[in-house]
Structure formats: structure tokens, C-alpha cells
From TrEMBL:
Taxon lineage: Bacteria, Pseudomonadati, Verrucomicrobiota, Spartobacteria, Chthoniobacterales
Physiological role: Part of the phosphoribosylformylglycinamidine synthase complex involved in the purines biosynthetic pathway. Catalyzes the ATP-dependent conversion of formylglycinamide ribonucleotide (FGAR) and glutamine to yield formylglycinamidine ribonucleotide (FGAM) and glutamate. The FGAM synthase complex is composed of three subunits. PurQ produces an ammonia molecule by converting glutamine to glutamate. PurL transfers the ammonia molecule to FGAR to form FGAM in an ATP-dependent manner.
Protein name (database record): Phosphoribosylformylglycinamidine synthase subunit PurQ
Active site residues according to the UniProt entry: C85, H202, E204
Superkingdom to which the source organism belongs: Bacteria
Amino acid sequence: MKAAVIRFPGSNCDQDCVLALSELGVKTDYVWHKDTSVAGYDLVVLPGGFSYGDYLRCGAIARFSPIMKAVKEYAAAGNLLLGICNGFQILCEAGLLPGALIRNRSLHFVCQHQNVRVEDISNPFLHLCRTGARLRIPIAHGEGSYSADAATLLQLERQNRILLRYVNNNGAAIDLANPNGSVESIAGIINEGRNVFGLMPHPERACDRRLGSDDGRIIFESILASLGAISLDEDAAAPTTSRSLT
Ligand SMILES: NC(=O)CC[C@H](N)C(=O)O
């Protein structure tokens, strides 16, 4: 299996994504935003950062990068596309996911470890989790407040497309107390085809216990398993995180 991490001017989590994937044994390339092809990749990641300095709105300019035409075609063909934080913002700006990420309610940049609850596992990105599992994954953003109109929210809900919600330490959705003001505490959503996932938390920063959590690994391991790149056989390369998650 081969993965591509797209580099925009201002991306700053690209190396972390490459490291997280490489440590799971995935051959991972950087692809420059001016390139025009993602042919041959099994996974494409739009990483976090400050593409184009967040000028106008986060992701608003990156969506016009030359690579995005290829990324859209790649996604339309059903391939796996993951957008993390600024990557999620780019996916919304590009129309690959509905809604928008707007300024945090506090108007402050928020950088902290955050609990999120897995709401749905019928997708390639979280299928190794248990529904209701709580993952502790860092967030770091100034524009992470997910917003969508009522019809979109209803559709997301009905189609089980809300994959992650911010929760407190007791596992309850925290609504008005969530870290950025996201409607319905939404931290991550998937497209209708269930192959494009955007999330504000940074799983690539939670792949090593020495960094405070390795709960993010299960997202990458789910992707690998759904692509047949790791075995689900108990005796073989069993996912390392699924055992400990609550
Ligand atoms: N960590 C990130 O990707 C940051 C995203 C974006 N620049 C924001 O502040 O909202």
C-alpha cells in the first residue's frame, strides 16, 4: 500500500502524518500542491497546518491548488481521502464535505488534549473501534467550530455520517461546553460515499504513548486494515490500540 500526504504552502503537520504512516509500515510520499496527479496511491491525506497562511478563510485558497482537481477525481472514484484539521477545512471549502469550519466561539486558538467519542464504525476509518469508544486526541485550531444548516445536519444524522463528537471526561457530549462551539459537538464527518473523512483532532499526534496518547493509531490501523495492508488475524499483526480503548 502507498499513501500520499499533500503539502500546501503552510502545511505543518505533513511530517507528522508521514511519520505516523511510516511507523505503521506504509510507504508514504509527500506530494506538492502544484503536482497534478495522485495516481497509484491507496490513501491521500490532506494534513493540518495553515495553508496560505489561513488567508481569507482556512482552506479557502488551498482548494484552488492544482492538486485538488486530481484529489477530487481520486475521491469520486471511491478512494480513501483523509482530511485532518486544516485538511478538514480544505475538504469543506472544496465541497467534498458539507458545512464549514468557522472561528472558535472563544475567538482563541485552542490547543489541548481532547476526548472524542466514536459515533459510527461502519466506515473504513474507524471500523476497528467500538461504537461509543472514547479517544484522547489533541486538537489545535483557531477555526474549528463546525457549522451546517439544519437540513444538512439532519442528513448527516440520518445517514450516520457524524463519526466523532467532542465529549467530556465522563463520555457525555458537552454541547455548549465543547472546545470550539461546534454544532452538536461535531468533531468529524464523512461523505455520503463513506470514503472521505474530515476531522479536527490530530490522530497523527497521538500515535505514541510518549506523546501522551496513542489513541490516534486506531484510525490509521483501521484504514490499513480496510485496504488489506494489515491482518485482522489475532496471531498476526493485530492492531496495537484496539485492546486498550474504552
Ligand atoms: N492545526 C491546524 O491544522 C490548524 C488549522 C487552522 N489553521 C486553524 O487554526 O483553524
